[in-house]
Amino acid sequence: MSKLISSMSRGIDRIWATPIRFLDTLGEMLTMLGRAFLWGLRPPYRIGLTLQAMEFIGVGSLSIIVLVSMFTGGVFGLQSVKAFRVFQADGYVGTAVSLTLTREIAPVISALMVSGRAGSAMATELGSMRISEQIDALATLGVNPIQYLVVPRLIAATVMLPILTIVFNVCGMFGAYVFVVLVMGVDEGIFIHNIRWYTDVGDLGMGLIKATFFGLMLALVGCHQGYNAGGGAKGVGIATMRTVVITSVAILVMDFVLTQILMQVGF
Amino acid sequence: MARASKERAKQQAHGDGDVTQVRARGAAAGDDASGLEQRSENHQIRVRGLAKTFGEHEVLRGVDLDIERGHINVIIGGSGAGKSVMMKHLIGLLKPTAGHIYVDGEDIVPLDDYQLNRVRRKFGMLFQYAALFDSMTVEENVMFPLLEHRKKEMSRAQMKELVREKLQSLGLYNVEQKYPAELSGGMRKRVGLARAIITQPEVLFYDEPTTGLDPIATKNVDEMIAEISEQLGVTSVVISHDMASTFRIGHRVSMLYKGQIVASGSPSEIITNDHPQLREFLEHSGVNVATAEVRR
Ligand SMILES: Nc1ncnc2c1ncn2[C@@H]1O[C@H](COP(=O)(O)OP(=O)(O)O)[C@@H](O)[C@H]1O
Ligand SMILES: [Mg+2]
Known about the structure:
The complex is a heterodimer of chains A (about 270) and B (about 300). Chain A has about 270 residues and is mostly helical. Chain A is built from eight helices and no strands. Chain A has one domain (about 35-40, about 45-265). Chain B has about 300 residues and is an alpha/beta fold. In chain B, helix 1 crosses helix 3 (about 35-40) and helix 6 packs parallel to helix 8 (about 185-195). Residues about 1-40 of chain B have low confidence and may be disordered. The interface of A and B includes residues 39, 132 and 134 of A. Bound molecules: adenosine-5'-diphosphate (ADP) and magnesium ion (MG).
């Protein structure tokens, strides 16, 4: 009997362990964000490092975004033509593609791509600096590691993700145009007219607001995981793996929540 | 004298039991009130009741330690004893679970990141594996503290010249454009040392400076530490588990065992100290205690 109770209580402990660890991690990340905010306001401003991080995230991710967006836009256009032809409404394919692309697909897929590439790189880089004591060395040399390492990456990702999302929109629409108009033979004039008529700045804005949050989040997760890595090379691997898992899930969950909120306020 | 009384006032402002504790110790040793002031002048860093727990793991359990100004202070102890953890507290890289650390009379435990940055200007540290920035060349590594803190006083050319001088004084020639990965362990340590001393800190910390080096490199590093200590008049804190080095360079030796300082004194006092764990440590260190080279 007492055995049963003790094993039950252990089971309950284990059930609680996950949400408690989740809240712990969330709290730590928000603390890091707060510290980064304060250190970001203090001079010296690390402009060179910020530009370097922007180059790594933005320029570095550009080719993959261009490639992925054209295929995504293309396949989405193709599938839409198939669906809309059921109702003989293939003139509206342009509307469907541009609305989903700007509001949903561009920010979400851009964020997933950047998190796989830049978020995980941040975790690896900061993680190996942590275990080789380079982060401690920075602090000992009178340089705050949050200001030097974390702030530039947060700023860079927050700024670059919306820009990459715009690129995704443009290239995605081009991909859709190629397949919908040139391959499937939908009328070009109607395709473009319906994009113009039904897609407005608000739709684009919704995508860009989401992208901004995704950018900040994925850099924060990557930096937090790397900064707190421990346990040698294996610890760095774990930090990197966790970054990819956490950011991927968080992008989809945040996307849902942000969509709800933004639609409430009229987007 | 004025400085000593100012320091004392500062400590009292912190309102803890530390001053009385020191006084009690002073009284036990037969010191009078002037002995207390003497202590503040002689001790650059004073650690009282330092405790640190990671989760359930108690690493430090009440460390009391005085670091003598201008001397080489060696801390010995087995691996995993908590030596690195203790040193990280002295520089403010870790926050203790309990206890106080006074640097020139100022308790650094309650300080935030920003205030710690100021205190750390007094410090230089050589890490166990040098901790060079691997994305930077040797020159950029050594110049880093100058670029951060001396930009207004020095031109870039002056910095380069100073870096070259410092590297050469440590026996490193034509390595400026190399990356840390291209250097041997001993060279990396010397670059780390150059980076640590280039801003002329008051206190230098060394975490196992000779571990992993061959006997000749070990002797060279020992000599470097002694030379730097004498030439620059800095306070040195050296973590070591090499007893031969310890006795060669140390003015004062303390042993950390199970999270506490169990023995402390000059090398000759340490050799004759009969604390059981210390005896065991000495016997297994391979140093013949009877014939050991002892400083002073
Ligand atoms: N950040 C940390 N988190 C948890 N445990 C730690 C941490 N740093 C050190 N420890 C533990 O503290 C103990 C002492 O470590 P350390 O000070 O590195 O020993 P050493 O005396 O060899 O330098 C070890 O058992 C180590 O596992
Ligand atoms: Mg150690």
